[in-house]
Amino acid sequence: MWALRAIAVPVAILMMSAGCYDQRPRDVPEGATRVSFSRDGGWAYCWLDETMQLNRCRTYNASGERIYRIGKKNDNDDVFLPYEGSGPVPQDQLRVDVVHTGPDVIWLQNGIVLLPRNDYVHQKSVVDEINRIGNLPAEKKK
């Protein structure tokens, strides 16, 4: 019985601390998605600004601090445009892909990619390269 308790207590502490790690920080919006873009992870939150008819996305580090693009520390920093196509993505389609999303590029579960308007050209070239490499035959990837 003592041996069982000796194992149960550390396991319970580990489980409780793991649960705390995934808790949404206070400054992160309630609908944000936990993503894996760094060692500690982070958060991504996208919504449709119906007044402006724009998609807006914000990313946060694991502690809940907002991540801004270099030199763009204002709310205009959160406007995102589709990599392909035009117009905003409807709210019900703004489900963040937790594996592929990064602080600068939001990948959605439906395959749509959103890029920051204030760094669109650069981020589009990054996604173009990812797509090019992904489409190479296996023997050319080596």
* Gap between N and C termini: 55 Å
In N-to-C order, the SSE pattern is HEEEEEEEHH
Average pLDDT, all residues: 82
Quick one: how many beta strands? Answer: 7
Low-confidence stretches: 1-20
Q: Output the number of helix runs.
A: 3
Radius of gyration: 19 Å
Query: How much helicity do the residues have?
Result: 25-40%
Strand content: 15-25%
Counting helices, strands and paired strands, the structural category is: alpha+beta
- Major β-sheet, in short? 7 strands, antiparallel
Shape: globular
Reconstruct the topology from this structure.
Layout: H1 2-21, E1 33-35, E2 42-49, E3 54-61, E4 66-67, E5 79-82, E6 106-107, E7 113-116, H2 120-134, H3 138-141
Antiparallel strand pairs: 1-2, 2-3, 3-4, 3-5, 5-7, 6-7
Can you walk through the features of this model?
The chain has 142 residues and is an alpha+beta fold. It has a domain of 93 residues. The chain is 27% helix and 22% strand. The chain contains 3 helices and 7 strands. Strands 1, 2, 3, 4, 5, 6 and 7 form a 7-stranded antiparallel β-sheet that branches. Strand 6 and strand 7 form a beta hairpin. It is globular and about 35 Å long.
